Amino acid sequence: MAIDFIDLKAQQARLRPQIDSAIAAVLDHGQYILGPEVKQFESELAHFGQAEHAMGCANGTDALLLPMMAWGMPRGVAVFCPSFTYCATVEVIALLGGVPIFVDIDRETYNMCPDSLRQAIEGVKAEGKYTPWGVISVDLFGQSADYDRLTPIVREHGLKFIADSAQAFGTTLNGKQPLHYADIATTSFFPAKPLGCYGDGGAILTNDAEHLRIMRSVHMHGSGRDKYDNVRIGLNSRLDSIQAAILSQKLSIFEEEISLRNDVAKRYIDGLKSNTLRVPSVLDGVVSTWAQFTVEVPDPDALGAALREKGIPTARYYPKPVHKQTAYQDYPIGAGGLANTEDAMSQVIALPMHPYLEEDVQDRIIEEIKSAL
Q1: First-to-final CA distance of the chain
Q2: For the domain that residue 169 is a member of, what is the CATH number?
Protein backbone atom coordinates (compact mmCIF):
# COMPACT_ATOMS: atom_id res chain seq x y z
CA MET A 1 0.00 0.00 0.00
CA ALA A 2 1.35 3.43 -0.98
CA ILE A 3 2.11 5.87 1.82
CA ASP A 4 1.33 9.60 1.72
CA PHE A 5 4.27 11.96 2.15
CA ILE A 6 1.88 14.36 3.89
CA ASP A 7 -1.59 13.01 4.68
CA LEU A 8 -3.96 15.98 4.48
CA LYS A 9 -6.98 13.68 4.23
CA ALA A 10 -6.62 12.41 7.81
CA GLN A 11 -6.75 15.91 9.25
CA GLN A 12 -9.61 16.85 6.93
CA ALA A 13 -11.63 13.84 8.07
CA ARG A 14 -11.18 14.92 11.67
CA LEU A 15 -12.31 18.50 11.00
CA ARG A 16 -14.67 18.06 8.05
CA PRO A 17 -17.95 18.96 9.84
CA GLN A 18 -16.45 22.13 11.33
CA ILE A 19 -14.79 23.12 8.05
CA ASP A 20 -17.98 22.54 6.07
CA SER A 21 -19.91 24.69 8.53
CA ALA A 22 -17.29 27.47 8.43
CA ILE A 23 -17.27 27.54 4.61
CA ALA A 24 -21.07 27.52 4.53
CA ALA A 25 -21.14 30.58 6.80
CA VAL A 26 -18.97 32.47 4.29
CA LEU A 27 -21.19 31.38 1.41
CA ASP A 28 -24.23 32.56 3.35
CA HIS A 29 -22.97 36.07 4.11
CA GLY A 30 -21.12 36.49 0.80
CA GLN A 31 -18.21 38.60 2.08
CA TYR A 32 -15.59 36.55 0.26
CA ILE A 33 -12.82 39.13 0.58
CA LEU A 34 -11.96 40.58 4.03
CA GLY A 35 -15.05 39.08 5.62
CA PRO A 36 -15.38 38.73 9.42
CA GLU A 37 -13.53 35.41 9.33
CA VAL A 38 -10.30 37.20 8.37
CA LYS A 39 -10.39 39.55 11.34
CA GLN A 40 -11.28 36.66 13.66
CA PHE A 41 -8.45 34.50 12.38
CA GLU A 42 -5.93 37.34 12.61
CA SER A 43 -6.86 37.79 16.27
CA GLU A 44 -6.53 34.05 16.95
CA LEU A 45 -3.23 33.85 15.10
CA ALA A 46 -1.76 36.81 16.99
CA HIS A 47 -2.71 35.20 20.29
CA PHE A 48 -1.17 31.85 19.34
CA GLY A 49 1.94 33.54 17.93
CA GLN A 50 2.57 35.68 21.03
CA ALA A 51 2.12 38.83 18.93
CA GLU A 52 0.19 42.04 19.41
CA HIS A 53 -0.95 41.99 15.78
CA ALA A 54 -1.29 39.59 12.85
CA MET A 55 -2.19 40.38 9.25
CA GLY A 56 -3.26 37.83 6.69
CA CYS A 57 -2.05 38.08 3.10
CA ALA A 58 -2.15 36.14 -0.15
CA ASN A 59 0.84 33.84 0.40
CA GLY A 60 4.07 33.33 2.31
CA THR A 61 6.16 35.16 -0.28
CA ASP A 62 4.06 38.31 0.07
CA ALA A 63 4.37 37.95 3.83
CA LEU A 64 8.09 38.60 3.37
CA LEU A 65 7.65 41.25 0.71
CA LEU A 66 5.06 43.45 2.47
CA PRO A 67 7.06 44.42 5.58
CA MET A 68 10.09 45.26 3.44
CA MET A 69 7.94 47.46 1.21
CA ALA A 70 6.37 49.11 4.25
CA TRP A 71 9.82 49.86 5.65
CA GLY A 72 10.76 51.46 2.33
CA MET A 73 13.81 49.28 1.73
CA PRO A 74 16.24 51.24 -0.48
CA ARG A 75 17.49 49.73 -3.72
CA GLY A 76 21.02 48.37 -3.74
CA VAL A 77 21.30 47.58 -0.03
CA ALA A 78 22.58 44.26 1.33
CA VAL A 79 20.17 41.81 2.94
CA PHE A 80 21.69 38.70 4.50
CA CYS A 81 19.92 35.36 4.07
CA PRO A 82 20.66 31.64 3.84
CA SER A 83 21.03 29.86 0.53
CA PHE A 84 19.80 26.57 2.01
CA THR A 85 16.12 27.53 1.76
CA TYR A 86 13.29 27.85 -0.72
CA CYS A 87 13.91 30.57 -3.30
CA ALA A 88 11.12 32.84 -1.97
CA THR A 89 13.35 33.97 0.91
CA VAL A 90 15.84 35.37 -1.58
CA GLU A 91 13.35 36.32 -4.28
CA VAL A 92 11.75 39.12 -2.28
CA ILE A 93 15.11 40.81 -1.73
CA ALA A 94 15.87 40.79 -5.45
CA LEU A 95 12.34 41.91 -6.39
CA LEU A 96 12.80 45.09 -4.36
CA GLY A 97 16.22 45.78 -5.86
CA GLY A 98 18.21 44.65 -2.86
CA VAL A 99 21.35 42.50 -2.96
CA PRO A 100 21.02 39.08 -1.30
CA ILE A 101 24.20 38.13 0.56
CA PHE A 102 24.28 34.37 1.12
CA VAL A 103 25.08 33.17 4.63
CA ASP A 104 26.05 29.63 5.62
CA ILE A 105 24.02 27.28 7.81
CA ASP A 106 24.76 25.59 11.09
CA ARG A 107 25.68 22.03 10.13
CA GLU A 108 23.54 20.46 12.86
CA THR A 109 20.27 22.37 12.48
CA TYR A 110 20.40 23.64 8.85
CA ASN A 111 19.46 27.11 10.12
CA MET A 112 21.48 30.30 9.70
CA CYS A 113 24.91 30.09 11.36
CA PRO A 114 25.51 33.06 13.69
CA ASP A 115 29.27 32.99 13.11
CA SER A 116 28.74 33.01 9.34
CA LEU A 117 26.29 35.91 9.66
CA ARG A 118 28.79 37.97 11.61
CA GLN A 119 31.52 37.24 9.06
CA ALA A 120 29.23 38.16 6.18
CA ILE A 121 28.15 41.48 7.71
CA GLU A 122 31.69 42.46 8.61
CA GLY A 123 32.90 41.42 5.16
CA VAL A 124 30.31 43.60 3.40
CA LYS A 125 31.16 46.56 5.64
CA ALA A 126 34.88 46.12 5.03
CA GLU A 127 34.41 45.94 1.26
CA GLY A 128 32.22 49.04 1.24
CA LYS A 129 30.35 48.19 -1.96
CA TYR A 130 26.94 47.65 -0.33
CA THR A 131 25.25 49.07 2.76
CA PRO A 132 23.97 46.38 5.15
CA TRP A 133 20.24 46.86 5.71
CA GLY A 134 18.57 43.68 6.93
CA VAL A 135 18.63 39.99 7.76
CA ILE A 136 16.11 37.28 6.90
CA SER A 137 16.66 34.14 8.93
CA VAL A 138 14.72 30.96 8.15
CA ASP A 139 13.22 28.53 10.66
CA LEU A 140 13.93 25.56 8.43
CA PHE A 141 12.15 22.20 8.54
CA GLY A 142 10.03 23.40 11.48
CA GLN A 143 12.80 24.43 13.89
CA SER A 144 13.45 27.87 15.36
CA ALA A 145 16.72 29.44 14.33
CA ASP A 146 19.32 30.15 17.01
CA TYR A 147 17.93 33.57 17.89
CA ASP A 148 19.78 33.76 21.20
CA ARG A 149 22.93 34.18 19.12
CA LEU A 150 21.56 35.72 15.92
CA THR A 151 19.58 38.59 17.42
CA PRO A 152 22.49 40.27 19.27
CA ILE A 153 24.49 40.31 16.02
CA VAL A 154 21.62 41.88 14.09
CA ARG A 155 21.02 44.49 16.81
CA GLU A 156 24.73 45.29 17.10
CA HIS A 157 24.76 46.30 13.44
CA GLY A 158 21.37 48.10 13.53
CA LEU A 159 19.71 45.94 10.86
CA LYS A 160 16.08 45.06 10.19
CA PHE A 161 15.30 41.47 11.18
CA ILE A 162 12.68 39.16 9.65
CA ALA A 163 12.07 35.62 10.90
CA ASP A 164 10.85 33.56 7.93
CA SER A 165 8.74 30.91 9.67
CA ALA A 166 7.01 29.67 6.53
CA GLN A 167 7.92 26.11 7.52
CA ALA A 168 7.78 26.55 11.25
CA PHE A 169 4.90 28.62 12.60
CA GLY A 170 4.41 27.45 16.18
CA THR A 171 8.06 26.69 16.89
CA THR A 172 9.42 28.12 20.12
CA LEU A 173 12.83 28.81 21.63
CA ASN A 174 12.79 28.85 25.43
CA GLY A 175 9.02 29.21 25.25
CA LYS A 176 9.17 32.24 22.96
CA GLN A 177 8.04 32.33 19.34
CA PRO A 178 10.37 33.89 16.72
CA LEU A 179 8.73 37.33 16.83
CA HIS A 180 10.10 37.73 20.34
CA TYR A 181 13.58 37.91 18.80
CA ALA A 182 12.87 39.62 15.45
CA ASP A 183 11.10 42.72 14.15
CA ILE A 184 8.72 40.67 12.02
CA ALA A 185 7.76 37.00 11.82
CA THR A 186 6.12 35.61 8.70
CA THR A 187 4.47 32.36 7.75
CA SER A 188 2.92 30.52 4.83
CA PHE A 189 -0.35 28.61 4.77
CA PHE A 190 0.53 26.57 1.68
CA PRO A 191 -1.41 23.31 2.14
CA ALA A 192 1.66 21.20 2.97
CA LYS A 193 2.79 23.49 5.80
CA PRO A 194 2.18 22.42 9.43
CA LEU A 195 -0.61 25.01 9.55
CA GLY A 196 -1.93 25.09 6.01
CA CYS A 197 -5.09 26.12 4.23
CA TYR A 198 -6.71 24.67 1.08
CA GLY A 199 -5.18 27.18 -1.30
CA ASP A 200 -2.61 29.94 -0.96
CA GLY A 201 -2.28 32.14 2.09
CA GLY A 202 0.22 33.76 4.41
CA ALA A 203 0.51 36.02 7.43
CA ILE A 204 2.73 38.57 9.14
CA LEU A 205 3.11 38.93 12.91
CA THR A 206 4.27 42.20 14.47
CA ASN A 207 4.26 44.22 17.68
CA ASP A 208 4.58 47.53 15.81
CA ALA A 209 1.18 49.13 15.27
CA GLU A 210 2.49 51.86 12.94
CA HIS A 211 4.30 49.36 10.73
CA LEU A 212 1.11 47.29 10.66
CA ARG A 213 -0.88 50.32 9.50
CA ILE A 214 1.45 50.83 6.56
CA MET A 215 1.48 47.12 5.69
CA ARG A 216 -2.33 47.10 5.64
CA SER A 217 -2.18 49.95 3.16
CA VAL A 218 0.44 48.20 1.02
CA HIS A 219 -1.49 44.92 0.90
CA MET A 220 -4.54 46.83 -0.43
CA HIS A 221 -2.91 48.57 -3.43
CA GLY A 222 -1.39 51.28 -1.21
CA SER A 223 -4.83 52.45 -0.11
CA GLY A 224 -5.42 55.65 1.84
CA ARG A 225 -8.50 57.06 3.55
CA ASP A 226 -10.14 57.85 0.21
CA LYS A 227 -10.96 54.68 -1.72
CA TYR A 228 -9.81 56.34 -4.95
CA ASP A 229 -6.67 57.96 -3.57
CA ASN A 230 -3.94 55.33 -3.21
CA VAL A 231 -1.15 56.95 -1.20
CA ARG A 232 1.71 54.52 -1.91
CA ILE A 233 2.67 51.78 -4.34
CA GLY A 234 1.19 48.53 -3.12
CA LEU A 235 0.03 45.03 -3.93
CA ASN A 236 -3.20 43.08 -4.07
CA SER A 237 -2.40 40.58 -1.34
CA ARG A 238 -5.31 39.60 0.83
CA LEU A 239 -6.20 36.41 2.67
CA ASP A 240 -9.69 35.46 1.52
CA SER A 241 -12.55 34.71 3.89
CA ILE A 242 -12.92 31.02 3.07
CA GLN A 243 -9.23 30.30 3.71
CA ALA A 244 -9.39 32.25 6.98
CA ALA A 245 -12.44 30.24 8.04
CA ILE A 246 -10.60 26.98 7.30
CA LEU A 247 -7.49 28.14 9.13
CA SER A 248 -9.44 29.04 12.27
CA GLN A 249 -10.66 25.45 12.48
CA LYS A 250 -7.16 24.08 11.89
CA LEU A 251 -5.62 26.44 14.45
CA SER A 252 -8.00 25.08 17.10
CA ILE A 253 -6.18 21.72 17.02
CA PHE A 254 -2.73 22.98 16.02
CA GLU A 255 -1.13 22.75 19.46
CA GLU A 256 -2.15 19.10 19.69
CA GLU A 257 -0.84 18.46 16.18
CA ILE A 258 2.55 19.94 17.08
CA SER A 259 2.73 17.46 19.96
CA LEU A 260 1.78 14.59 17.62
CA ARG A 261 4.47 15.68 15.13
CA ASN A 262 7.04 15.54 17.91
CA ASP A 263 5.89 12.02 18.80
CA VAL A 264 6.42 10.96 15.19
CA ALA A 265 9.84 12.63 15.09
CA LYS A 266 10.94 10.89 18.30
CA ARG A 267 9.89 7.52 16.93
CA TYR A 268 11.90 8.16 13.76
CA ILE A 269 14.96 9.27 15.73
CA ASP A 270 14.81 6.27 18.08
CA GLY A 271 14.32 3.85 15.18
CA LEU A 272 16.83 5.24 12.70
CA LYS A 273 19.96 6.01 14.70
CA SER A 274 22.85 4.33 12.92
CA ASN A 275 26.35 4.85 11.61
CA THR A 276 25.10 5.18 8.03
CA LEU A 277 22.20 7.59 8.62
CA ARG A 278 22.22 10.97 10.35
CA VAL A 279 19.03 11.99 12.13
CA PRO A 280 18.06 15.64 12.77
CA SER A 281 19.31 17.67 15.72
CA VAL A 282 17.15 20.11 17.67
CA LEU A 283 18.59 22.97 19.71
CA ASP A 284 18.20 22.87 23.48
CA GLY A 285 15.08 24.80 24.43
CA VAL A 286 13.46 24.45 20.97
CA VAL A 287 10.11 22.87 20.20
CA SER A 288 10.02 22.07 16.49
CA THR A 289 6.87 21.80 14.39
CA TRP A 290 8.63 19.23 12.15
CA ALA A 291 7.47 20.49 8.77
CA GLN A 292 9.92 17.98 7.34
CA PHE A 293 11.86 15.09 8.83
CA THR A 294 15.20 15.33 7.04
CA VAL A 295 17.92 12.73 7.39
CA GLU A 296 21.33 12.44 5.76
CA VAL A 297 22.73 9.44 3.92
CA PRO A 298 25.71 9.07 1.57
CA ASP A 299 23.47 8.51 -1.49
CA PRO A 300 20.01 10.04 -1.01
CA ASP A 301 18.97 9.42 -4.62
CA ALA A 302 19.62 5.71 -4.25
CA LEU A 303 17.69 5.57 -0.98
CA GLY A 304 14.82 7.51 -2.54
CA ALA A 305 14.66 5.08 -5.47
CA ALA A 306 14.72 2.05 -3.18
CA LEU A 307 11.92 3.44 -1.00
CA ARG A 308 9.87 4.45 -4.03
CA GLU A 309 9.83 0.81 -5.15
CA LYS A 310 8.27 -0.02 -1.79
CA GLY A 311 5.58 2.67 -2.11
CA ILE A 312 7.32 5.10 0.26
CA PRO A 313 7.67 8.68 -1.03
CA THR A 314 10.59 10.96 -0.20
CA ALA A 315 11.64 14.51 -1.12
CA ARG A 316 14.89 16.47 -1.37
CA TYR A 317 15.15 19.82 0.45
CA TYR A 318 17.42 21.28 -0.99
CA PRO A 319 19.67 19.49 -3.51
CA LYS A 320 20.29 22.80 -5.31
CA PRO A 321 20.52 25.70 -2.84
CA VAL A 322 19.51 29.14 -4.06
CA HIS A 323 23.04 30.38 -4.74
CA LYS A 324 23.40 27.62 -7.37
CA GLN A 325 20.14 28.41 -9.16
CA THR A 326 20.29 30.22 -12.48
CA ALA A 327 18.49 33.39 -11.40
CA TYR A 328 20.58 33.86 -8.24
CA GLN A 329 24.04 32.51 -9.03
CA ASP A 330 25.59 35.94 -9.55
CA TYR A 331 24.65 37.34 -6.12
CA PRO A 332 27.43 37.55 -3.52
CA ILE A 333 28.40 34.81 -1.11
CA GLY A 334 29.23 36.16 2.32
CA ALA A 335 32.74 36.15 3.72
CA GLY A 336 33.58 32.70 5.04
CA GLY A 337 31.79 30.87 2.23
CA LEU A 338 29.07 28.23 2.26
CA ALA A 339 30.96 25.07 3.19
CA ASN A 340 28.13 23.65 5.34
CA THR A 341 25.51 24.40 2.72
CA GLU A 342 27.61 22.71 0.03
CA ASP A 343 28.16 19.68 2.26
CA ALA A 344 24.53 19.23 3.33
CA MET A 345 22.94 19.59 -0.11
CA SER A 346 24.33 16.30 -1.41
CA GLN A 347 23.18 14.18 1.53
CA VAL A 348 19.72 15.31 2.65
CA ILE A 349 16.48 13.45 2.06
CA ALA A 350 13.09 13.97 3.74
CA LEU A 351 10.78 11.18 4.92
CA PRO A 352 6.97 11.11 5.24
CA MET A 353 5.95 13.39 8.13
CA HIS A 354 2.55 14.47 9.43
CA PRO A 355 0.67 14.28 12.75
CA TYR A 356 -1.40 11.27 11.74
CA LEU A 357 1.39 8.92 10.66
CA GLU A 358 0.32 5.63 12.23
CA GLU A 359 2.90 3.69 14.20
CA ASP A 360 2.70 0.53 12.09
CA VAL A 361 3.18 2.58 8.92
CA GLN A 362 6.11 4.40 10.46
CA ASP A 363 7.63 1.11 11.57
CA ARG A 364 7.37 -0.09 7.98
CA ILE A 365 9.19 3.03 6.75
CA ILE A 366 11.93 2.58 9.33
CA GLU A 367 12.46 -1.07 8.47
CA GLU A 368 12.54 -0.41 4.71
CA ILE A 369 15.16 2.31 5.26
CA LYS A 370 17.30 -0.05 7.32
CA SER A 371 17.00 -2.71 4.62
CA ALA A 372 17.91 -0.24 1.87
CA LEU A 373 21.01 0.90 3.73
Answers
A1: 21
A2: 3.40.640.10
CA 334/CA 139 separation, integer angstroms: 20
349-367 residue pLDDT tens:
999 999 999 999 999 999 9
246 and 261 co-located in one domain: no
**C-beta atoms surrounding 261 within 10 Å:** 24
- Do residues 168 and 175 make contact, with C-beta atoms less than 8 angstroms apart? no
- Please check whether residue 44 lies inside any domain of the structure: yes
Q: Model-level pTM?
A: 0.97
> How far is residue 1's CA from residue 311's CA, in Å, rounded to a whole number?
7
Q: Is the dihedral of CA 195, 196, 197, 203 positive or negative?
A: positive
The answer to whether 175 and 148 have CB atoms below 8 angstroms apart is no
pLDDT digits over 264-309, tens only? 999 999 999 887 899 999 999 999 999 999 999 999 999 999 999 9
Q: For residues 371 and 297, what is the distance between their CA atoms, to the nearest angstrom?
A: 13
Q: How confident is the model at residue 159 (pLDDT cuts 50, 70, 90)?
A: very high
Q: Are residues 186 and 300 in the same domain?
A: no
